[in-house]
Amino acid sequence: MLNKLRSFLREQKMLQPGDRVICAVSGGADSVALLFAMYLLKEKEQITLEAAHFNHHLRGDESDRDEAFVRSLCHQFDIPLHLGQGSVTAGKKGLEAAARDARYAFLKSLPGKIATAHTADDNAETVMMHLIRGTGLKGLGGISPIQGNVIRPMLTITRQEVEDFLKEWNLSHVEDSSNGSDAFLRNRIRHHMMPLLRQENPRISENLSQMALRLREDEK
Predict the structure, then answer these.
(1) In this predicted model, what pLDDT tens digit does every residue of 97-127 receive, in sequence order?
(2) Pairing between strand 81-85 and 150-151?
(3) Which of 103, 105, 81, 101 is nearest to 92 (CA)?
(4) Res 33: pLDDT
(5) How far is CA 123 from CA 72, 113, 127, 154, 165, in A?
(6) Going by C-beta distance under 8 Å and a sequence separation of 6 or more, which residues neighbour residue 199?
(7) Where would I find the H helices in the chain?
(8) Could you tell me if 97 and 91 are in contact, meaning their C-beta atoms sit under 8 angstroms apart?
(9) Residue 54's beta-bridge partner residues?
(10) 5 with 144: CB under 8 angstroms?
(11) What is the CB-side half-sphere exposure of residue 6 using CA atoms within 13 A?
(12) Against a cut of 0.85, is the pTM above it?
């Protein structure tokens, strides 16, 4: 995983020596893997590494547990941590979108490059969401690798590779109980559609993510 991440960082020209990189860390598997991977690479890439966590207060004690976990993780590896919080209510676009908007508003207020842990699986799910709702070439381009000061170094990495990486380094993470709900379209795609597609093509997530990256270049 580490080699793929570093190759993608360089291919997309995401970093420059001296950059201040702030990893968005929820405490979930993907974000823990990103933070630790960047921790392992920070000397080679000549960057300053920090972390950020936003507490939406949407899941009561579980939200506070996530924050405590991220605090402990950053303390363990001596990584400076930025904390944000807010009460989120569903707007016209729904609760999930409102939470995302609040989180990104906090992240983009921080000085430096913001690294998020979107994976190839996330990118594939996004492409499928856009297909279902109807889209053009831009929507088929999925998640942008670079968007302003936000970088997404893990778009070529699968969840299985994340899990293998965490196991290799004996890293723990927390689970968001809302990920098990079928209330959101992304979760329904993840739980029901992607497993069926994976039966036909075990590399469907990687293939769709690579397709999205190529179409994004075509759109440019």
Answers:
(1) 777 888 888 999 999 999 999 999 999 999 9
(2) unpaired
(3) 101
(4) 98
(5) 29, 20, 6, 10, 19
(6) none
(7) 2-11, 29-45, 61-76, 95-108, 120-133, 137-140, 159-168, 185-188, 194-200, 204-219
(8) yes
(9) 84
(10) no
(11) 14
(12) yes
